[in-house]
Predict the 3D structure of the following.
Amino acid sequence: MVRRLLVATGVAFAAQIFFELFGMDISPLFGLSWPGLEHLMFWQPITYMFVHGGVLHILLNLMGLFFFGPEIERALGSGKFLALYLACGILGGLGWLLLAGGREVCIGASGAVFGVLGAFAGLHPYRPITLLVFFVLPVTLSARTMAIGLGLINLLMILRGGGGVAYAAHLAGGLAGYLYIMLWFRRGLNIRALSPATWFNNLLWHWQRRKFKVMSRRDSFEFRSEAPPDEDELNRILDKISKFGISSLTPGELAALQNARRRGSRRETAWRGEEP
């Protein structure tokens, strides 16, 4: 899917250059703007991602997608990666409309690409990334540090005034990608369960859970009343460890893994005790 997006973006830019040779600017038609939406051009939240302001603009976006996209696609699958890319682009565009839209036109895949960067930082927060500052000076940072730094820079530029760059789209798209990984992908949050009643039940459950938590000097233990995880759940947890490492597990998944290990140890001890 990453390769198809790269090709589609390149072909769209070539078509844009072709029309510009004949004096036709397609940005007002396919870029994102309040006037366009007011005239019912509802395709703009998607098509604006494939229109760019120049060679450097598209080159930077293609590089970000090329270097960070394949690993996210392997983790999510092609279908979910495409949905993530488009959703981050759309949310980035909406963020730009709300924060800095005015009567201007937003173009470029930066919101979607920043969404991929945010997803990468959520999935591999400690992965070292080497950046070429001004294309000359190499600087190595962790993925999370890089994402935080870029977010702060874009936030500062929003506060100072955009200056013709859609910093709000960068920030909104990056946050969307990061939150998707942290809330939905790694923790398995069900978006359909985000009703007020569910929120209240979750808060009540967490409050009751804290009543049974006992802290010792050497470790912390939680008394759980839920049933032991079944074989499918354990296989899912082990598969997650093999893909993303044990640091990607949630506290609940770690507890389930420890419970399964303790039950296995008890069964082994009981079996040895029955030997003659």
